[in-house]
Amino acid sequence: MLLMDEMTRIYESHDSGRTFTRIAEDFSSAKILDFAVSKDGGKVYASNMGVGISELTEQGEWRYMSGSPDYAYAIQIDPDDSSTLYAANSPKIFEDHSSVWKYSESEEENFGWREILRVENSRGITSLEFDPRIPTGSTLQS
């Protein structure tokens, strides 16, 4: 179990939440809007308000993902492919649209990120979920 508190400290529990140990002490952010962990535990991402998405590297260090949406209020790892991440981005004050972005390690443009859905005249997307009955490859393609 992973827990992130308001001060962006990250803790883990291996006994169903009876005890917690602080991990990733080098991680800090103004505010975390969401975080996601792959089913196999190999990928961990955190959405940092106003600065984009961070990834926990294999070396146990946090790094900002270049090109990631900076106001991603919701992030989800593709349940069928842990190397693919989706982010629901809310508009900045001067924008009039919200969007969903897809990150794939195989994508060559924009550091692996591309917009796959734009909702005009929208104030923001705050949730992003997958329908477990539908394979993601058939639904979130552009």
Molecular structure report:
This protein has 142 residues and is an all-beta fold. It has a domain at 33-130. 0% of the residues lie in helices and 39% in strands. A 4-stranded antiparallel beta sheet has the order 4-5-6-7, with no helix packed on it. A 4-stranded antiparallel beta sheet has the order 8-9-10-11, with no helix packed on it. The model has no long low-confidence stretch (mean pLDDT 85).
Q: What's the helix-strand series?
A: EEEEEEEEEEE
Structural class: mainly beta
Global mean pLDDT: 85
Strand order of the largest sheet: 4-5-6-7
N- and C-termini, Cα separation: 34 Å
Number of E-state strands: 11
Q: What is the C-alpha radius of gyration, as a whole number of Å?
A: 15 Å
Tags for this model:
mainly beta, 4-stranded antiparallel β-sheet, 0% helix
Describe this structure in a few short sentences.
The chain contains no helices and 11 strands.
Topology:
Layout: E1 2-4, E2 10-12, E3 21-23, E4 32-37, E5 44-48, E6 52-56, E7 62-64, E8 72-77, E9 84-89, E10 97-104, E11 113-120
Antiparallel strand pairs: 1-2, 2-3, 4-5, 5-6, 6-7, 8-9, 9-10, 10-11
